[in-house]
Amino acid sequence: EYLKSHKTQYSGLTKELPKNVHLLTLEQWKGSSYLLRLEHFYQQNESQTLSKPVTLDLKDLFTPFVVTAAVETTLSATQDKKTAKRLQFKSNAETNRFEPKRVDFSADDLSVTLNPMEIRTFIITVHNR
Questions:
Q1: pTM, full prediction
Q2: Which GO BP terms, alphabetically (predicted)?
Q3: CATH number of 42's domain
Q4: Nearest-angstrom CA–CA distance, 14 and 41
Q5: DSSP string, the chain
Q6: Does the residue 101 lie in any domain?
Q7: Is residue 90 part of a domain?
């Protein structure tokens, strides 16, 4: 009886995330903006299919709101990714660890590509549906 008269499940996503992606953080930031972190949790060559890069459209990802704008930030969300500067280290080795080709975030179409073991952080601006 209880299940018939009460809603016992709710999903804030318009569709299921790919099996290799985890929504790590969705936290209200300031006003109508939120902190969003997405994680690709498979390693390179761990799975024949799930270790591949995956692309998500942020615009229509959530049911209660539409993402209207997004800015990619560092993992700590303290700097815009475009202006952040990483430390450079000299190495004697000719080849360092595997660096996958990173696909830049497109603020125009709000699509993001995640490579294996990658976490990407965004400040998203939303509008209620």
A1: 0.82
A2: carbohydrate metabolic process
A3: 2.60.40.1360
A4: 21
A5: -HHHHS------BSSPPPTTEEEEEEEE-STTEEEEEEEE-PPTTTSTTTTS-EEEESTT-BSSEEEEEEEEE-TTSSSBTTT--------SSSS-S--PPPPPPBTTTTEEEE-TT-EEEEEEEEEE-
A6: no
A7: no
Domain around 36: 12-81+112-128
| pLDDT tens-place string over residues 26-58 | 999 999 999 999 999 999 889 999 999 999 999
- For residue 73, the number of C-alpha atoms closer than 13 Å in the C-beta half-sphere is 15
Whole-angstrom CA distances from 117 to 50, 84, 108, 120 are 11, 21, 25, 10
| Closest C-alpha among 64, 58, 69 to residue 128 | 64
How many CB atoms are located within 10 Å of the residue 125 CB? 18
- Res 102 pLDDT > 60: yes
For residue 127, pLDDT beyond 80: yes
